[in-house]
Amino acid sequence: MSRNSLATTIVFVAGLGIGFFARSAMSTDQLKDTHVADLAAIEKLHQQDIEATLSQDPKGLIDIWMEDAVRFNAAGSPAVGKQAIHAENQKIPTQYPGFKVLSYVPKYKNIQIEDGLACEWSEREGEYKLSSDSPLANWHAKGLQALKRQSDGSWKFVLIIGNE
After folding, report:
1. Looking at the chain, which runs of residues are DSSP E strands?
2. For residue 126, what is the domain's CATH number?
3. What's the number of domains the chain is made of?
4. Does a structural domain hold residue 99?
5. Which tens digits make up the pLDDT trace of 105-121?
6. Other C-beta atoms within 10 Å of 1: how many?
7. Is 3 a domain residue?
8. Which one, 22, 44, 108, 135, has the greatest CB density within 10 A?
9. 15-20: long-range contacts at Cβ-Cβ below 8 A with a sequence spacing of 24 or more?
10. What pLDDT is stored for residue 74 in this prediction?
């Protein structure tokens, strides 16, 4: 084994050991505080999603996503990256200038958080009109979401798989 390989291996193993002991040194109270803060920040993301969806604010609809996010919809191919999601978001208001979301109620369930990542599943319901004179339409979907903690403690969606 070369000298560089041995040094790299030793540094790697030392890093694993330091990481393990640093994590185990966190008290139960510190872990609870982190979990409570994460849940509050995830709830804030959920509220941003609701507000942006109801207002159809283009900036709000894209700010909830990470740069490399992926959104899978039942119809069509996945939107890969924040700009592709934005382009997909713009299709409906471009095609239907009078489009209005009247209600949007997501119910998030089974949130699991581990090491800065979270997953959850949801049921989403909504009512919308394609134009002011069109009939009221209902929407119902189930989905799986993956979220990632940002360096400032906020959370963003990194993956949504929906079945509209």
Report:
1. 65-72, 79-80, 100-114, 117-129, 137-149, 155-162
2. 3.10.450.50
3. 1
4. yes
5. 999 999 999 999 999 99
6. 6
7. no
8. 108
9. none
10. 79
